[in-house]
Design goal:
The structure holds 2 protein chains of 2 kinds.
Chain A: E1 2-6, E2 9-11, E3 19-20, E4 25-26, E5 33-35, H1 37-53, E6 56-62, H2 68-77, E7 81-85, H3 95-107, E8 113-117, H4 128-136, E9 140-150, E10 153-159, E11 164-170, E12 173-177, H5 189-195, E13 200-203, H6 205-208, H7 245-255
Parallel strand pairs in A: 1-6, 1-8, 6-7, 7-13, 8-12, 9-12
Antiparallel strand pairs in A: 2-5, 3-4, 9-10, 10-11
Chain B: H1 10-37, H2 42-50, H3 69-82, H4 84-103, H5 106-111, H6 113-117, E1 123-126, E2 142-146, E3 149-160, E4 167-173, E5 182-187, E6 194-196, E7 210-221, E8 225-226, H7 232-268, E9 270-271, E10 274-275, H8 280-308, H9 314-339, H10 341-344, H11 350-360, H12 367-382
Parallel strand pairs in B: 1-4
Antiparallel strand pairs in B: 2-3, 3-7, 4-5, 5-8, 6-7, 9-10
Helix pairs in contact in B: 1-3, 3-4, 3-7, 4-7, 7-8, 7-9, 7-11, 8-9, 9-11, 9-12
Classes of the chains: A alpha/beta, B alpha+beta.
Amino acid sequence: MNIVVLVKQVPDSGSERKLDPADNTVARAGADNVINEMDEYAIEEALVVKEAHGGEVTILTVGPDSAADAIRKALSMGADRAVHVTDEAMHGSCAVQTSAVLAAALQQMDYDLILCGAESTDGQVSVMPALLAERLGIPQLSGARKLTIDDGVAKVERQTDGGFWALEAPLPAIVSTWDTINEPRYPSFKGIMAAKKKPVETKTLADLGIDPSTVGLASATSQVLDFSGRPPKGEGVKVADEGDGADKLVEYLASQKIV
Amino acid sequence: MPVDRELPTEEAQDLIALTRDLADRELAPRAAKYEREERFPREVFRTLGDAGLMGLPFPEEVGGGGQPYAVYLQVLEELAMRWASVALGVSVHTLSCSPIARYGTEAQRRDLLPEMVGGTLLGAYSLSEAHAGSDAAAMKASATATDDGWIARGEKAWVTHGGHADFYTTFLRTPADGPRGISCFHLTPDLPGFGAARPEEKMGLTASTTAALRLDDVPIPRDRLIGEPGRGMAIALGALDSGRLGVSAVAVGLAQSALDLAVRYATEREAFGRPIVQHQGVAFLLADMAAAVESARATYLAAARRKDAGKPYARQASISKLVATDAAMKVTTDAVQVLGGAGYTRDHPAERYMREAKVMQIFEGTNQIQRMVIGRLLAGEAAPAAG
């Protein structure tokens, strides 16, 4: 079973994140860049599937040179190899353009199963599985909280607010995962050492046969025109307790129609 | 702020980064709760084992990490910064593996060692007895030779991981080897007559279980002997030198945490219109704490580099243990002082750090014993060569 995991490097959602004021794209330089959290669950699930069914886990990343750190983390967790698509011309690409690049890269690879996180913490567009399913002509099983592979069929429990849907599709298929699906392993010290020797293939747009003018900010299908910071928290209401604190609190709650 | 470490290789940097990540997520959030509940974190040691942190100084061919002591000890220190009981456990486990790694037969190294250094099995080290602590050679628990091995009888004391461990590197008197004969054995809790007593109720490190062992006519198979019969004391003392370095690193990690806590508090807490760190009385206290932590770290690293270079390091190990654990006691006590009334409450970890530091001046050879060792080694070096 050949499994490809789509991995994205994003600015750490726990630190302060910024947009670059020059072109309103995500500021990656100087940010604390990490592997997209949800992708770690996809990697873990790929390793679990590999442990049960054999095969090879390949990481596929589109991103700047610094994304090599995210690839190395994925390899140290136990993935076997990686493909890193990197090209200056891709800067500012939208989800539709990125999906064309990913699809072109995937068409050069052997895969039975594609796994990815259900969302990234930077763009949060969450459409990549659907875009790729369309481009590759394969089924998508999105938002999985459970995955089983049985005789060439992928079965998932698709997480919903009220419960789950039971879905299945023949392989090859693309499955996106939520953080309810597993508990990602830590890389081991030996895994970290081994990761340095694992093959990482770097590809450019030319290698994928993609015209650079079809990607990048200039021809993106969506652009950020303007942005503003989150408004600071309001002052709040201070209740001074002069023996009637409880009454004042109730009064306030009633005025807000909370009670 | 993370400690800025001098590390010899990129491999070591990656190892420290892994340790920090794992310790931040698996150790730090559990420490206060487990210590309060006196709960032994067996599962945390499994996580550390899976990550390859339970056998760092042992050779890679037996499943270890192949790391020099100067790196292994800094990993211990990082663990201790988040949870001293767990770091101590890793140090004790490493100590328990070392006799087989160093003196074990080929069969023992092949069959037993990989699961030990891989952390699947948790180790304990049993040398002391109730009346033979500092004077370990006065031990009474014995192993009497039989046709197919030994029969062990007696009671051991102060066994870290007692009742939880999967193997016990145990030192017993073997009368067959002469009046001073002591031998080292690999005991497992499945042996008939082997039992652990109720855990001690301790002042600190309460998530690290300490218990006495009862040996009621325990039959020891012949292949459980480690090293030469009657040579156990030499094995024990050799292992203790490296164990003292482990305790030094744990003490420095604990002290570093106390210092960090005190500095953070002193920059936030205001008195007389400014943060208390800007009052010289407090700043000097913090400065002395930092000096104690950094000099203790330098001392254990200097000893570790001697060991890594194959030089004698017994004196440096004792000096390191003495300096680092005295520093930890002073620094944690002063951290309580910096936090004032808040430091005396259990709302902050300062008082726990102080309780945890105390035993470090006692175990792995009291600091009085360390002074004896240092003095004896100095005297030996100064004496003219015999003959």
